[in-house]
């Protein structure tokens, strides 16, 4: 049995069961709150903070993906503070990584009138593309550190624990144990990390080869010759 | 790797393996002591023995600045380059050390004996400029001392302790730790005996009546925290001493631990008794190896004397204390990141709520307190709340430690009752500025703090007066900057500090600390561009409003306060030479 909680979102009264997040409650009220890292099948970690909203009486903004409703709460999903944070987060993200294959984030940049070139002389994260297995490529220059791949590889889904974090702070990158190629790790090539990646950072190898201009026949020929090479070994 | 003798690792694996993931940092520390760094086969063996996925082992190694994947010099020389040491000439010391070691900071000459690093604040601010050579603290360095520095040959650094009061610091300043006998002779462990006689509820109500609030920076009422952990459902419960003191300019907890370790221990035992915890942890930052050894010895003394262990002092109450050594991560001073670190993980702060009193270490009810806070507990229990409240003001009762550093005649640790003025602290206690110098600014509360100026000199140092003045007390940092100092350079160092220490979890802090550091670097170099002030403000307010934890929420605090006081510092500058 659930207890009902009454709150207002942008002035509109909403009643939802206790334990509902502000993100869900806002959706009930017809308010779409933008997110980047959030994925409904992954543990929400409140990383991207694009979903922050203003809660009356709170010192700082609240991440709607994890903050839960409480009785009498007054929530504002837009406003000067919220908009500045969202716009600046988007501008900073654009200054750090290649978002050209992240259409959803690009739409947010437009919606918040964020300038992708806001930060001159910004050091970008541009590591080399990693092509170390037959299934997918890793281009961490497009990685927004949403953690979804690490989570589905671990206890959100597959329990293979092949990937984790390298470095710290701005230099954080997703990686394997001592940078081992994926075939030398516990990776089972389930592909779930590729499925949840919100940008072009993880991409099926075939998609990548097609983009490189290879034809399906050429790709099939590559696969066959690779198999023969392996058999000879 | 062929020369690697993995058999030597066996005793470490045998000791730590059965304890599982929580033993990861201790195992990595032990292995690194053996091999000098943590090569891949060693990391793999540790992961297998402890049952930690290998990718997470390297993830943990990478998170902590004092763990090394690659070979380093036989000696590691960490020269502090944060503001207090920089004011005293740290850059020249670093340059001389690098020249002698034959490699730039952070690198090692082939076959080199030394790896010299520019280190974040080492908590040796009263001995600035300071360095840590392996486990040896070195102070008042000059470039001419570089041979002694690299040889780790220097005099002991007795703590500089003074003030109007000597209550918390009664046993400090001997230049060595107070022994158990000395501690007892000064009334030590009487508080614990009283607490055991009075019962847990009485202890908590006395702490509440005393009005003690946390001394780590957040000023949360300690009695409420203890009560919350006591009432929380679930066993086991834990008490944790947060000795990960890392706020630039802060060194009070180091002095307390090194000079009077039993005071913290007695407070820890009282806190454990109050909430009903049978297991306590003391998490000491990796840069405090001396304090770690001293606390370790004190725990052994306390066990032998019956203050710790099963049925302590015949009370029927059991308590074990385990020490943990950090490994170079400021973020682990954030309480939930500290829990993650004890659990053998990267020090990522957790989303709050839930709060530690209900869901803390290993997901269990936990009371976590700063060293100085714990040192107040024996005092409150022994003297009683009424006598305790004779010190300080109505709303800020008790004694307080101030870490005074920078441009004063006598940098040091000063104890006083809350309510003294900034003038009294700076001029009467710390001896004022050096001859012929004027006060330009005071950095209050550390890197996560704010600037004060001469206008604030009469402000009373209480929580209420400082809040009114818009100055954070934080961890008690008061860093004086005289009129010849370049504030842009101070800000540049603060920016670098936060960019280095951000854990990288949430976007505002992960990217914001980097962008902030880049802009401050430009400002300090005289190359501020049009719009940089506005960029700094947007980045700063976004970090303040939208970051996940206290680190990000305060990473722009000093910068935003400087922008208010001295907007001219951030104006567009004509491009300098070489721009």
Q: Which descriptors would you attach to this protein?
A:
heterodimer; A: 233 residues; alpha+beta; Ubiquitin-like (UB roll); Alpha-Beta Plaits; 2 domains; five-stranded mixed β-sheet; two-stranded antiparallel ribbon; 29% helix; elongated; B: 579 residues; alpha/beta; Glutaredoxin; Rossmann fold; 5 domains; six-stranded mixed β-sheet; 24 helices; 41% helix
- List the strand order in the largest sheet of chain A: 2-1-5-3-4
Name of the CATH class of the largest domain in chain A = Alpha Beta
Structural class of chain A: alpha+beta
CATH superfamily of the largest domain in chain B: NADH-ubiquinone oxidoreductase 51kDa subunit
Low-pLDDT ranges of chain B: none
C-alpha-based Rg of chain B, rounded: 23 Å
Average pLDDT confidence of chain A is: 96
Model description:
The complex is a heterodimer of chains A (233) and B (579). By secondary structure, chain A is an alpha+beta fold. Chain A folds into two domains: 75 residues, Roll (Ubiquitin-like (UB roll)), CATH 3.10.20; 97 residues, Alpha-Beta Plaits, CATH 3.30.70. In chain A, 29% of the residues lie in helices and 14% in strands. Chain A is built from seven helices and nine strands; from the N terminus they run ββαβββααβαββαβαα. The mean pLDDT of chain A is 96. Chain B folds into five domains: 58 residues, no CATH class; 76 residues, Glutaredoxin (3-Layer(aba) Sandwich), CATH 3.40.30.10; 226 residues, NADH-ubiquinone oxidoreductase 51kDa subunit (Rossmann fold); 84 residues, Ubiquitin-like (UB roll); 84 residues, NADH-ubiquinone oxidoreductase 51kDa subunit, iron-sulphur binding domain (de novo design (two linked rop proteins)). Chain B is 41% helix and 13% strand. Chain B has 24 helices and 14 strands. The chains are: A alpha+beta (233), B alpha/beta (579). At the A-B interface, helix 2 and strand 7 of A face helix 3, helix 4, helix 20, helix 21 and helix 22 of B.
């Amino acid at each position: 049995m659930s207890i009902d909680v009454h709150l207002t979102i942008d002035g509109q009264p909403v009643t939802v069961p206790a334990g509902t997040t502000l993100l869900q409650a806002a959706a009930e009220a017809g308010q779409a709150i933008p997110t980047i890292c959030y994925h409904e099948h992954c543990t929400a970690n409140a990383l991207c903070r694009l979903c922050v909203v203003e809660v009356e009486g709170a010192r700082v903004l609240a991440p709607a993906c994890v903050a839960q409703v409480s009785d009498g709460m007054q929530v504002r999903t837009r406003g000067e503070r919220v908009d500045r944070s969202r716009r600046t987060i988007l501008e900073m993200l654009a200054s750090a990584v290649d978002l050209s294959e992240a259409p959803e984030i690009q739409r947010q940049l437009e919606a918040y009138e964020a300038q992708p070139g806001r930060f001159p002389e910004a050091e970008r994260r541009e590591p080399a593309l990693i092509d170390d297995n037959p299934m997918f490529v890793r281009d961490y220059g497009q990685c927004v550190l949403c953690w979804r791949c690490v989570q589905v590889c671990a206890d959100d889904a597959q329990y293979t624990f092949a990937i984790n974090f390298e470095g710290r702070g701005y230099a954080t990158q997703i990686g394997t144990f001592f940078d081992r190629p994926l075939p030398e790790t516990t990776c089972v090539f389930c592909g779930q990390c590729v499925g949840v990646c919100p940008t072009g950072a993880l991409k099926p190898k075939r998609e990548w080869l097609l983009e490189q201009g290879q034809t399906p026949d050429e790709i099939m020929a590559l696969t066959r010759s690779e198999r023969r090479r392996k058999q000879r070994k | 790797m062929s020369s690697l003798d993995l058999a030597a690792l066996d005793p470490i694996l045998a000791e730590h393996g059965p304890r599982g993931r929580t033993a990861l940092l201790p195992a990595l520390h032990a292995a690194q002591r053996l091999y000098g760094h943590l090569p891949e086969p060693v990391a793999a063996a540790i992961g297998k023995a402890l049952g930690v996925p290998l990718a997470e082992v390297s993830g943990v190694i990478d998170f902590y600045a004092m763990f090394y994947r690659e070979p380093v010099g036989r000696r590691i020389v960490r020269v502090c380059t944060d503001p207090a040491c920089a004011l005293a000439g740290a850059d020249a010391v670093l340059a001389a050390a690098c020249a002698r070691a034959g490699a730039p900071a952070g690198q090692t000459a082939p076959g080199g004996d030394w790896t010299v690093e520019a280190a974040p604040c080492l908590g040796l601010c009263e001995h600035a400029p300071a360095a840590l050579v392996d486990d040896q603290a070195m102070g008042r360095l000059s470039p001419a001392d570089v041979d002694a520095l690299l040889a780790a040959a220097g005099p002991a650094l007795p703590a500089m302790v003074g003030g109007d009061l000597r209550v918390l610091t009664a046993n400090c300043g001997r230049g060595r730790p107070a022994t158990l006998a000395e501690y007892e002779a000064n009334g030590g462990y009487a508080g614990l005996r009283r607490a055991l006689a009075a019962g847990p509820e009485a202890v908590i109500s006395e702490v509440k009546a005393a009005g003690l609030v946390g001394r780590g920076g957040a000023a949360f009422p300690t009695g409420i925290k203890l009560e919350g952990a006591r009432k929380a459902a679930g066993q086991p419960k834990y008490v944790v001493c947060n000795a990960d003191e890392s706020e630039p300019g802060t060194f009070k907890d180091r002095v307390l631990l090194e000079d009077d370790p039993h005071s913290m221990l007695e407070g820890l035992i009282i806190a454990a008794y109050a909430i009903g915890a049978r297991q306590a942890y003391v998490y000491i930052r990796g840069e405090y190896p001396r304090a770690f050894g001293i606390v370790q010895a004190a725990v052994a003394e306390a066990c032998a004397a019956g203050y710790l262990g099963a049925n302590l002092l015949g009370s029927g109450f059991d308590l074990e204390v385990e020490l943990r050594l950090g490994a170079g991560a400021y973020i682990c001073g954030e309480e939930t990141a500290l829990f993650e670190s004890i659990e053998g993980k990267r020090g990522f702060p957790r989303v709050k709520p839930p709060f530690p009193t209900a869901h803390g270490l290993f997901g269990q009810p936990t009371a976590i307190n700063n060293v100085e806070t714990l040192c107040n507990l024996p005092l409150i229990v022994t003297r009683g709340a009424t006598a305790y409240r004779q010190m300080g003001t109505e709303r800020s009762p008790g004694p307080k430690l101030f870490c005074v550093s920078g441009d004063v005649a006598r940098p040091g640790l000063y104890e006083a009752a809350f309510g003294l003025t900034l003038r009294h602290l700076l001029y009467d206690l710390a001896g004022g500025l050096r001859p012929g110098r004027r006060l330009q600014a005071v950095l209050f509360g550390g890197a996560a703090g704010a600037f004060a100026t001469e206008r604030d000199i009469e402000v009373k140092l209480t929580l209420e007066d400082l809040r009114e003045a818009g100055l954070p007390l934080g961890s008690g940092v008061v860093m004086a900057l005289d009129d010849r100092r370049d504030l842009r350079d101070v800000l540049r160092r603060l920016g670098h500090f936060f960019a280095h220490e951000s854990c990288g979890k949430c976007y505002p802090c992960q990217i914001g600390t980097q962008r902030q550091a880049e802009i401050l670097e430009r400002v300090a170099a005289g190359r501020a561009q049009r719009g940089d002030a506005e960029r700094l403000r947007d980045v700063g307010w976004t970090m303040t409003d939208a970051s996940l934890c206290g680190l990000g929420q305060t990473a722009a605090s000093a910068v935003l306060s400087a922008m208010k006081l001295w907007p001219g510092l951030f104006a567009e500058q004509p491009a300098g030479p070489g721009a």
